[in-house]
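Hey,
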Amino acid sequence: MRAALIAYVAITFLFESTFADLMHLIALAVWLPAGERLFSRHELGFWPRTRREVRTVAFAGLLVIPAASVAVYFFPGNSLLGPTQNEGGSLWSTLLTVVVIAVVADQLRKGRRWAWWVALGYGLLHVVLTLVLLGVAIGTDIETTGAVTAGTGLLWAGEAALLYGGRGAFRVPVRRKITEGALAGTEPGDAVRTLLARYGGSTMSWMTTWPENKYWFADDGERCVTYQRHAGTVIALTDPIGPVDLLPATLSTFTDRCEADGLIPCLFSTTRTVADIAGELGWRSVQIAEDTIVDLPELEFKGKAWQDIRSAINRANKEGVEFRLVELADEPFAVLAQVRAISEEWVGEKGLPEMGFTLGGVEEALDPAVRVGLAIDAEGSVHGITSWLPVHAPGGEIRGWTLDLMRRRPGGFRPVVEFLIASACQAFKEEGAEIVSLSGAPLARSAGGAAPSRSIVCSKGSARRWSRITGSVHCIRSKPSSGPATSRCTSATATRRTCPASVSP
């Protein structure tokens, strides 16, 4: 709504400039910040925070610019910047511009990186050329520009600022078919899911299927490393997918490929097995998190350690809050709209954008292979959401589930996260699953473990702050010390080049 108001006021003020438009501008400038300060209780500020919000606003903003040109073409007038008639070019050139920008805008909506580069580059070029023409017009008697050029230049400046500030939302690479090796002609995403079903993976392996990742495939087509590239470093996500006996060869070949391209390889959130193999190859490693594994066949909510869980379940039954395990994409619009609203409000409260990489959001939860737990009362109100990623065993069987998304509605059922996790564990146990992973607690170490390194000791404060930001504190509170087992999540860096040890993103 705020974005629509800003777009309307900007277009009418720049291209019509009536007294009413001036009043609209003043009212917007005064009451937007005043209303946010006086009435907003949760989401603070005007900047979009979720990836979906950034993409949607950028998409709409990019469409506003050609829409303004079309409106001015058919309804010219006199604006604050000057007359707008006879400045828009031919109708066909205007329509061609609209079509091209609409195609780029649609790809921005999907988070495509190439569309971000095209839109940002064209916008900056338009702004620079407008400034040059204005400078020439001011310094000479040559008439070079007019109201439409100057007005659209200002609109492009706002769009470029939005694209640059929200650049983290546009990381989806172009997925070309594999051109080399045994998988030539195959879609990368399909190949990863096939290998994951064939060889299985760790509790975090499903995150390798997310659209912002890139892939390296071995020539035999049986091994894959998922990675993202940042600042000259290739950050590989969790364990390589493929035969366990070929892990040393996979790591060695992947490292050689990275260093041949002048890049620094780093393994992020791997299991102890892969960290040990990397250590034998000369890598350095540091424990960055600890994963809590619940053994479902032996799970019973008995004893003092599970008192909070039993209380949450009993309270939910008393207040009429029920648990539903669903595929989110199949839910009605009313439920999906509530889930999005709760997630966006939760992110807004944290003051940070969605992290991505190993922290999924609603978009990742819409995958049909992902299960979503909902806490819904008798009136249909959603109180909380959890999403669960499949953990594959070799042969395609799903042996367990990993907790990913956790959101709760402010002012709703208070112990909703504990209720959702416990109910999901019971449901998965009844389905025959073996384990549930409650995800890695950043920089956590179980009692009796090895002495932490200096970097870990210095990061304890960061871990506590990170828990408040990500919501993992709710997860930690749901882990009785006498119950689930723990496993290390490790970050390893090749020692052939200098690179700081990685921490959780």
